[in-house]
Amino acid sequence: MYFCFVQKSLLQNINSPEELRLLKQKDLEQLAQELREFIINIVATKEGHLGASLGVVELTIALHYVFNTPADQLIWDVGHQAYGHKILTGRQKNFHTNRQHGGLSGFPNREESEYDTFGVGHSSTSISAALGMAIASHLKGENKQHIAVIGDASIASGMAFEGLNHAGVTDANLLVILNDNAIGIDPSVGALKQYLTNVKKGTQKQDNIFEALNFDYSGPIDGHDIHTVISELERLKTVKGPKLLHVITTKGKGLKQAETNQVKYHAPGKFDAKTGNLPVKSKTVQPPKYQDVFGYTIVELAKQNKNIVGITPAMPTGSSLKYMMTEIPNRAFDVGIAEQHAVTMAAGMATQGLIPFCNIYSTFLQRAYDQIIHDVALQKLPVIFCLDRSGLVGEDGATHHGVFDLSYLRCIPNLIIFAPRNEMELRNIMYTAQLGLKQPIAIRYPRGRGITIEWKQPFSKIEIGKGVALKKGKKLAVLSIGTISKNITKAIKNLDVSHYDMRFVKPLDENLLHAIFKTHHTIVTVEDHAIKGGFGSAILEFASENSYKNTIKNLGIPDAFIEHGSVNELLEAVGLDVESLIKVFSDFL
After folding, report:
1. Mean pLDDT for all residues in the chain
2. Model pLDDT, residue 142
3. How many domains does the chain divide into?
């Protein structure tokens, strides 16, 4: 007779760290395996950020096992790696809704759980936030632990060093855990990466950089040896003042494909949970992604113009600057997570006659606002800003929507602002910008695919500040900017409505606007951007300055932070889908 012993599941009975701490330490390896499998099975069907969370499974379990969370405060930098944290802190049953409309956020969110002590989504904020909490606890006489978990790519950012610099002269009860896996979304770059590599190999000759900043440094240790991690965390609980634990992990740990192809499996989309394989790509010809239009076009232009250089802060794959880095590597630069540096370096290059294309996601350009004003626009330096991921970006949610760029850029003197309607317009404005502009330009375009198969047409120069009429009607004129134009085109197909693509938010085509205001009673502006201060506001200002009394209606993103969901779901939620536009236009008619 044979007996089959089925191993009892541990994870399904853990709904809080309190229940986790009831386990015997010898059982935590089994829990780690179950947690990995749980994450893989959900992300395989629901999509999301896979590799980062797989890499910190043991660390996540150890942190909640050793520390008294949420009383002890745990802050995850960026938050890509926080899936295991969410599952262990009461969200296991709802984790299938992760990044879905109305479901859990893909990042730690203070409104979602008391265990999410700080909302994140952008990099390099954890040390400063944790230090602020630690100082507050000290002032209030509280005895708490404060832990910031930050990656090797994020700790190279200027803000992280600002936090380290300040923490080193305090007696704050702060533990920084450096999760060193040699990769962010793309492989880490820079001298600090080489330093950390040397530390791991035992070949580093200079003094320890963290000890020089007055941190009690320990490590590096194997982040997948859960017993070693727990032992070191227990020790560090008794150490006063700022300390740093250097942990070595493998991004994608536990899934072969995610370990070997870490860039692709950062956020792989849907895949086979059993094999790890991605679905076979359809051979159907599709329009290109806007990022690829940028990537292929800058290579094409750079081969013709030796002064063109490309810059991106840690997003060579996401921006598609990787094509230029492959073909013309000496003129394409990944500067790491350093948006401020990227902008001012571009400004420096422009002073020497180079033509810098500085490609930064719209939401991340917010991190370099002073540099745009002080280092670029004030000096009228012809930097070409390419703002990828503008508008609503979908499941990444409020921290990543690029819906504020028009507002924060429109008030800056000397700056041209353009939004292409389609792929050819993106190509043509890039071509135009490198012909010799005497001032900076910002070009905003969305995430995802365009609308045109045959997009690679011969270049054509665009006249700066010139809008175009797409359809002529009578009473109602719709003014749009950028790719939201495609929804308007569908909405007015059977309506007697004029449609103008203004193209430039700055400078506005005032001649065209005068003609529109004199021939149409009602003006509707449409933008995939915040209503406050954006394109519609520019049209209202024009009307006021010229004493026009036309009826004006602004459509766009309401004055609220929009949560996560598919782009189509979010467009419907804010009234920018085709059906909603049809109703608005029909009501005016």
Report:
1. 95
2. 95
3. 3
Contact 342, 311 (CB under 8 A): yes
Query: Residues 86, 243, 251, 444: which is the catalytic one?
Result: 251
- Residue 5 scores a pLDDT above 50: no
Catalytic residue status for 283: no
Residues 420 and 494 in one domain: no
pLDDT digits (tens, 9 = 90+) for 288-327: 999 999 999 999 999 999 999 999 999 999 999 999 999 9
**Residue 396 token pair:** 């990444």
Same domain, residue pair 435 and 512: no
- 406 pLDDT band, cuts 50/70/90, is very high
Return the sign of the alpha-carbon dihedral for residues 62, 64, 68, 73: positive
Tokens 């005068």 correspond to 514
Q: What is the pLDDT of residues 521-578, one digit of tens each?
A: 999 999 999 999 999 999 999 999 999 999 999 999 999 999 999 999 999 999 999 9
Check whether residue 356 and residue 258 sit in a common domain.
Answer: no
| 435-455-525 Cα angle (round to 5) | 80
pTM score of the predicted model: 0.94
Q: Beta strand pairing status for 332-334 and 355-359?
A: unpaired
Tell me, yes or no, if 367 is annotated catalytic. yes
Task: Using the Cα atoms of residue 111, residue 115, residue 117 and residue 123 in order, give the sign of their dihedral.
Answer: negative
Residues with Cβ within 8 Å of residue 260, at least 6 apart in sequence: 252
370 lies in the same domain as 411: yes
Mean pLDDT of 26-36: 96
Neighbours of 464 (CB within 10 A): 17
Query: What is the arithmetic mean of pLDDT over 371-400?
Result: 97
Q: How far is CA 187 from CA 149, 211, 251, in A?
A: 19, 26, 11
In a domain, 1, yes or no: no
Domain end point (choices 412, 446, 480): 446
Catalytic pick from 58, 232, 300, 339? 339
What does the alpha-carbon distance between residue 53 and residue 267 come to, in Å, rounded to a whole number?
11
Same domain as 227, residue 93? yes
Q: How many residues are listed for the chain in this entry? A: 589
Name the one residue in this structure whose structure tokens are 């085109």.
489
Return the number of other C-beta atoms located less than 10 Å from residue 53's C-beta: 27
* Domain end among 386, 411, 446: 446
Quickly state the pLDDT bin for 7 (edges 50, 70, 90): low
Phi, psi of 318 (to 5 degrees): -65, -30
339 catalytic, yes or no?
Answer: yes
Which among 36, 322, 367, 410 is annotated as catalytic? 367
**pLDDT for 4:** 42
Q: Which two tokens stand for residue 107?
A: 């990042």
Q: Are residues 252 and 370 in the same domain?
A: no
> Measuring CA to CA, which residue among 378, 385, 383, 345 is closest to residue 364?
385
Handedness of CA 488, 491, 492, 497 (dihedral sign): negative
User: Does 283 map to a domain?
Assistant: no
- Peptide bond before 279: cis, by omega within 30 degrees of 0? no
Q: What's the domain range around 569?
A: 468-588
Indicate if 255 and 294 belong to the same structural domain: no
Q: Which of 382, 466, 371, 447 is nearest to 409 (CA)?
A: 371
